[in-house]
Amino acid sequence: MPEERTIEGRELDFVEAEFLNIQRSRVRGVEGSHLELQQVAALSVDGERVDMTQAAVGLLRAQQAGLNQSVSAMVVASEAEMNLSVAPVVASRGSASMSRSASAVVAAKEASLKDSASVLLVAGKLQGNVTTLFDLKGALCFGAVVGGLLGLVSLLKR
Length: 158
Description:
Layout: E1 4-8, E2 11-53, E3 56-68, E4 71-83, E5 89-99, E6 102-134, H1 136-157
Parallel strand pairs: 1-2, 2-3, 3-4, 4-5, 5-6
């Protein structure tokens, strides 16, 4: 029988279980198959299926990641879905879906964005309305200009 744990209102170092439901807690590291986090602060979360509601996580790694009204410094997933959430970096091997969310960098095979914003968006296929500061061409042009200017400055210093 699969191990199932429920944790509420605790401060823990590391938690591991196949099915895990954590509510109103602080955890350094979480690992498991199916994780549900509600009002949790965690440094690292690693699981096959991770659902977060009003949570804050440093590094989130998952096959399927769902963020609802949550914050994560970095999301690495095969499928990432964000709703009313913020993640400075989102990297997805498959699809990234964002609704009313924000990210500095989004890299995905397929991206579906609705009323969302990003600084840099790299996607093989894009659906929806998104506000980006740079697309792939813009980022390459920006990098070329900055690189040229830095090269010129280094030549002038000599």
